[in-house]
Design goal:
The protein is of the alpha+beta class and 126 residues long. The chain is 29% helix and 37% strand. It has 2 helices and 8 strands, in the order αββββββαββ. The chain starts with a helix and ends in a 7-residue tail after the last strand.
Length: 126
């Protein structure tokens, strides 16, 4: 015989766990990265970040464990500017080499150097 109080506590624990996991999953899914003609869109749950391609300064591999819209620790750190402030986002595309090539093609002035992308410095007019 199970006491009625113990049964009620069990149900509240299940409801609490479902609420917590629902919140965590709502921050992760859907999770995708899209390169448009002018922006890198990072979508994670209900959060959506649009990074202008012209603001991206550098993209490089990292294993940074900070919380991020990435499901793997094999990540890319995308460094960009927002106004004058430096920012970064950590992402984990499925096919990193293809993602880097596509990003370099779309951005135009990002060039592949080894396993990273770096913004080309514009040469002075003369």
């Amino acid at each position: 015989v199970v006491p009625s109080g113990a049964f009620a506590v069990g149900w509240w624990e299940i409801v609490f766990d479902l609420v917590i996991w629902g919140g965590v999953l709502s921050l992760l899914f859907p999770l995708y990265y899209e390169i448009t003609p002018s922006t890198l869109v990072v979508r994670s749950g209900w959060m959506r970040r649009q990074i202008p391609l012209a603001c991206i300064q550098r993209v490089f591999p990292t294993h940074n464990p900070l919380s991020a819209p990435a499901l793997s620790l094999d990540r890319l750190q995308v460094e960009y500017t927002q106004g004058r402030l430096p920012r970064f986002v950590l992402i984990s595309p499925r096919d990193t080499p293809s993602f880097l090539r596509d990003l370099a093609d779309r951005a135009g002035d990002l060039e592949v150097q080894g396993d990273q992308l770096i913004r080309r410095l514009s040469s002075p007019a003369g």
